[in-house]
Please model this.
Amino acid sequence: MIDCMIVGDSIAVGTHQFRPECRVHAKVGINSSQWNRQNSSRDLTAKTLIISLGSNDHAGVRTLWELQQLRARADAERVFWILPAIKPDVQDMVQIIARDHGDVILTIPNLQADKVHPSRVGYKKLAEQTR
Model:
């Protein structure tokens, strides 16, 4: 079993900068449906799994279903969800899934001017919270 895996979108990519020891499967701009399609056979077994998805989801994405599918495939001792800083409906969905599985929710600290991505300090804080 690998020690740490980070999956998701640009926020996952940025978090990896401060957790370089983690295996990363993330892509800038990807939504949860695209991630699931592109990673349908990926093994999600790790001691620590960090998930950042939902910020790029839109009305055509069945976000709750997609995130539930991803979480059902995960086999990890600890799962961290990075809560999107935008889209209250997606935030609610992430919180429901995390609560149902006893996972940890991390809010994004120190947002950049775009109000979506963490600053460099924010990424460092996220990484520290997952250790």
